[in-house]
Amino acid sequence: MQALGASGSERNTDGRAIYNFRCYFCHGYSGNAKTVAASFLNPPPADFTSATAASLPESRIVATLIHGRPGTAMKSFASLLSEAEITAVARFVQDEFVINKALNTRYHTPENGWPDHERYRIAFPFATGEISMSQSWETLTVDQARGKRLFLGTCISCHDRGPSGRDDSTWEARPLSFPRNNFSFTAPPKTDATASASPYAMHDVRPRVKGLTRSERLGEKLFQGNCAFCHAADGTGKNWIGSFLEPHPRNLRDPAFMAQMTRPRFIAVVGDGLPNTSMPAWKNVLTVREIGAIADYVGRAFHSLQASPANPPGQRP
Questions:
Q1: What is the pTM of this model?
Q2: Class of residue 85 by CB neighbours under 10 A (exposed 0-12, middle 13-18, buried 19+)
């Protein structure tokens, strides 16, 4: 096959398509993990551009795709991708990001819902970090100021704040839903002004719960700042990220599931994570008190948590 240039080759076509559908929202369009997800996950997704061919060979990428990485949000894709697909995406990641340090994966194509992406070029310097987000408005040219306003109003929902420098302000992250791959803007229903992801926007609205205790208020802050990215602000897991992940994050409002969820089990899952899913362990990130506070909030806002397992039908308490 004929090479297409430094950023990839025809052999990477399938791998590119898989990456752009399943991997980019954590690892980034350019493989550098500068994403909204990276600001929520601990440990963060891998930055492929910081690796070398020697430190991250194709075989190691394949092994990670097959087995996942315990204690992180990187789950196994063995049940979702064929052996050939895993090899294709591993080869693409190494060629595109590890070796060639390509600037993008050509995600913004008409097929992915981005006709004439070049019309946003004025905002590109803020997405790439060429211009710091903390640079004062007074020092920007007229065109740069227009680009920054466009970035803040449109691009930031997916590109977050771009690469940050030592002088950059701390930008407050919050859970958002984003247009899915191949999302269509044809005759859409009423849209979300932030992301135009109308099928998912309703799930990124936190419930208003009156009379929260001190622990429940702490749990609300922690849940909405960390867990809502996957489980949605309303706990359903039906925001865009939750709908995209496989297996889907648990619906914390589902009576069939939550009826069997005890408080001790919930705390254990949050602390230790769930193998073969994107649910990481939080015990090295949150304290015991903080995990308990999340349990208090979930039990109040979404569905009550039992103190002990429910009795099987026909058995006495």
A1: 0.52
A2: middle
